[in-house]
Design goal:
With 423 residues, the chain is mainly alpha-helical. Helix content is 68%, strand content 5%. The longest helix has 38 residues.
């Protein structure tokens, strides 16, 4: 174990003494903060005026929807956000006007494609009647990423319909105001004492999970790079003359793991100190210990796989191909974050929490839910993760033992699996 400790210390100091490590400490929180600030700033910027055409099959809603859209403007800017064009639809009844829509549809589509029109809206009687099976109104555009435009068009159409229904039904103004407005509803987390604390309680588990993901991905990939470099310049041969392959591999993993742990501790301490300064306390000591355990075990699991890949390859290009399955497991975990956050005690969340490659990321979401996951589930998931990490290290040691001294043509997956079975 003394040799493992020396190798781990060497690996740790080689990383933390670099300028890139110090830059990463400050750059990552800044980038995460900018990911929230920049979209907010962009929302305030004035966008170019959108031109929207309205084809009104109802012959009733179009003018009111157009009036509401052209009345919209950005704060402090009198110019309307939308320029609305009415599409003539010849015909004395709905059926005739519907046929007219099909006649002009191709031309409207082409105008959207060439940019002379941002979108067009087809208003049908279903907006007023809401009969089952009737054709829906349409919003057709070439850019559906601009969700804000869709929301504003939908809101103005809803308001126009509500106003017409209220007017034709002779509903009193006070009653109409209640029916067409949302009741005030204050949303708060029971674990928080203020709105800011409610937001922090909701977002903190996601931030911790992303920090786990970032540190495991970035730091463990550095382990692959260092292994390939030492193999390429034959330093690894000198090291293996003094220590066993398992001691060398374990030392490199533990040293690199300590680098990631340093980052986690610095970022977490900074974030929690900032929240505490504003009187917000949303994370308990037990949750911090759980985050630490999930990081350590998750890193050991993934780093073992990565160092095995690094020892089997001669170049980074070769390693990237073999790392694809490992990176896929890491990425797939993020796909389930929102689903687990919405239903942390559902069947999907419980099953995935016991699958070791997903455990480091998803159990943090479940443990910080209200109520948290049962203690026995958290303990069992940690036991399974620890067993998987140990098993991965043993298999990686077998690959490392053979691959570290192998040069030339990179091995195939079949050969790597054969190395794993070797005693």
């Amino acid at each position: 174990m003394r040799q493992v400790g020396r190798i781990a210390l060497r690996e740790y100091l080689e990383n933390v003494r670099t300028k890139t490590f110090l830059i990463g400490i400050f750059l990552t929180p800044v980038l995460m903060g900018l990911s929230f600030v920049i979209p907010a700033l962009l929302e305030r910027q004035r966008t170019e005026q959108r031109k929207i055409a309205i084809a009104d099959v109802t012959a009733a809603l179009g003018p009111e929807v157009a009036r509401r859209l052209t009345a919209r403007s950005a704060p402090g800017d009198p110019e309307p956000l939308y320029a609305v064009e009415s599409v003539p639809l010849p015909g004395d009844d709905v059926a005739a006007r519907e046929k007219s829509v099909e006649a002009v549809r191709t031309g409207l589509d082409e105008r959207v494609k060439d940019g002379s029109l941002f979108a067009y809206l087809v208003l049908r009687p279903s907006a007023l009647e809401r009969k089952e099976g009737s054709a829906a109104s349409e919003y057709r555009a070439g850019n559906l990423f601009d969700v804000k435009v869709i929301e504003q068009v939908r809101a103005d159409l809803t308001d126009a319909v509500n106003e017409r229904v209220v007017r034709e039904g002779n509903v009193p103004r006070e009653t109409a105001a209640i029916l067409t407005s949302r009741p005030p509803l204050e949303i708060a987390d029971v674990r928080a004492e203020s709105k800011a604390a409610s937001v922090a309680a909701t977002v903190t588990p996601f931030i911790f999970t992303l920090l786990l993901y970032l540190t495991i991905v970035t730091v463990s990939q550095a382990l692959v790079t260092s292994t390939i470099e030492e193999k390429g310049n034959r330093v690894i041969e000198v090291l293996l003359s003094s220590v066993s392959p398992f001691e060398l591999m374990a030392g490199k993993i533990l040293g690199t793991c300590a680098v990631g742990l340093t980052l986690i501790l610095i970022w977490s301490a900074g974030g929690l100190a900032g929240l505490a300064f504003h009187g917000i306390h949303v994370v308990s000591g037990g949750q911090l210990l759980l985050c630490l355990a999930l990081y350590l075990l998750g890193f050991l699991l993934y780093a073992s796989l990565m160092v095995a890949v690094g020892s089997a390859c001669n170049t980074l290009k070769e390693a990237q191909n073999l790392l694809a399955p490992v990176m896929s497991l890491l990425t797939i975990s993020l796909f389930f974050l929102l689903a687990v956050g919405r239903e942390p005690h559902g069947t999907l969340a419980r099953v995935l929490g016991f699958i070791p490659p997903f455990t480091p990321f998803l159990m943090m979401m479940r443990a910080t839910a209200s109520p948290p996951a049962p203690t026995w589930e958290i303990v069992l998931s940690l036991v399974l993760l620890a067993a998987s990490a140990w098993f991965a290290m043993r298999l990686a040691a077998r690959v490392f033992r053979t691959g570290a001294l192998l040069y030339g043509k990179p091995p195939s997956l079949r050969e790597i699996f054969r190395w794993m079975r070797a005693q």
